Model the fold of this input.
Amino acid sequence: MTLAVSAIATSPPPWIPKSFEEAWKSPEEIVIVRGEMRQPLILNPVPGVILKCSRYASQVEELLAMKFARDRLSLPVPRVLHHPPLPRRPGRRYSAHMKTPVWYICMEQCPGLPLSDTIDDMTPMQHDHIAAQLKTILHQMATYKPKWLGSVHGSPYNNFFFKDYVRPKTTFASFGEFHDHIRWMLELFCAPEFIDSFMSRFPRNAAIRFAHGDLLPKNIIVNGSTITGIIDCEAAGFYPEYWEYARMHCYYHRTPGWESVLRRLFPAPPREDEIYAVDEYRSIMAYQF
Done:
C-alpha cells in the first residue's frame, strides 16, 4: 500500500526562506517558536500559522503521518496548509560550502499551550478531562488494523527509533521480525546475557497498531483542559500495540500531573517490563548510534 500525497491547494505562507541558513535569519516580525540547530526550526510567520522547516526533506514522513492521522483516524493533528512538492531524493545531503535547501510543512497553529506547561498546576477534575480525551484518541488509533510494521505509507521506518545504518531496509510483516531486528541491533555491541535479559521484557505477542510514538505532554496542545492538537508526528507509524503505552510512561517525562493522568487512563498496575524495555531502547538509539 502507498499513500499518495499531493500539494495542498492553498497559497504558500507569506514568507518562505530560500535556505535553512536564511530561516535562522528570518525577519524580526517572524516569531521563532522553537529552534535548535539539529532539530526542525518552528516559525510563526503570521497568527494562526506554523512553519516547520528542516535542512532535508526528513519531514516527509511527518507530513504523510499527519495526513493519515487526520484523514483516516480523525485525530486532532494540525491541518496542513501547504508544502513543497515531495522530493525525489529525500535523503540527499549537501556539502558544507553549499546553502542547504529548506523543506517545510505549513500548518494551522493549534490554539493553546503544550500540556507540559500546565499539567502540574491542573486540578484533579481537569486531569479527569485530559484522560477522558486521551482515551478517545487511543481508541481511534486502535480502530485501524495495519498489516505491517513500518511507516504509514508502506515503507520502512525512517525516524529516530531506527537511526543511521541500523535502519530497516523493508517493512516488517510480523511482530517476530520487529523483535528480530532489535535483537540484531543489540548484537552489534551488547553481550548475549544482556540481550537475552533485555528481550525477555518485551511481550511475546502483540497486535499491530498505529502509534504517534511520542504522545507526551510536550506534544499535546491544550486550551484550558481541552486538547486542541497533537503535534510532532515524525515518529508516527505502525508498531506493536505496547509501544505507545510504554512511550507515554517514559521515565524522563514523568511529572506529578502526568502521573495523575496516566493513572486515570491506565488504572491497572504499570507494565514496568514493557516501559523499561522501550525506554532503554530509546536511550540506546540516542546514545549508541
